[in-house]
Predict the 3D structure of the following.
Amino acid sequence: MIMQNLDDYKYLDLAKAEYLDQYNNNPFKFKHSLCECSLLSINNLSEVILNLPKSRVFFSSGDVDVTANLDTAHIEHKPDLSLEDAFNNIEEAGAFVMVRQPESDPVFKELFNDLILDVKRFANSIDPGLHGFMLYLFIASPNSVTPFHIDRYSTLLFQLKGHKDVNVWKPWDRDLITDIDLERFFSYEEGFSPELKDRYIEDAIVNHIKPGEGVHIPFVSPHWIKNSDEVSVSLSIIFNSKKTTNLANSLMFNKWYRKTFNRPAKPVNESILRDKAKANIYRKYQDLLGFMGK
């Protein structure tokens, strides 16, 4: 295992060999220096966020159950106040603000590029072809909950203000999330979101993080988050790779295969060669549909 040099990183402390062993297999905590970035103060963030396109800002109540649907929370649990009022009284507002792609504002561009370089220095040696980088910002009132969900990418989550418990399960736990559920999720089946089975809630790995600490959430790891009794600000960078893209396409291949041939498909993430073959077939199938205008 190649040991990374901490001097190579601008914001992340990932210079430990065990991090590479755990990457996309298990969640792990790490340290970062993003709290020193004045750009990420809550006052500056509120000013920037209020000027972003509304399509990038998702605003909901933070007082939701762990089983709520994260994708529709901004519709089903919309607070009775404006976004500006929520920022002005974030301690009492009971609000949860999620911002997609804040790097669309030029003030975030340098930070975004520095984080991309940090992630590539860490992961490119074992997970080549990193791509699809994107930032998310989260500002939440005390005791807010981010409901149970899975993501279609790998994540590094950085805590900037407040404390939180990040509850994460190991990826590819087929008792918690079945293959068919993953296939439906990656195919963007309308209205579908994986559900948390009550008997598994105690099996999560709880990562308590404070400012200056972060958590790696592996690709397809189910997770939910509970903030402490203070305002929370966090930032995440998400990304994919050749491997995770092949896994996603393999899941979509399985759904197509089951529907087309009415036969079970071999599970994903058990054979690299099989997943690669499935992904290639699915990509060619999609290319053919595009060529035919379907």
User: Anything to note?
Assistant: The chain has two domains: 6-169+204-240, 245-291. The chain has eight helices and twelve strands. The radius of gyration is 20 Å.
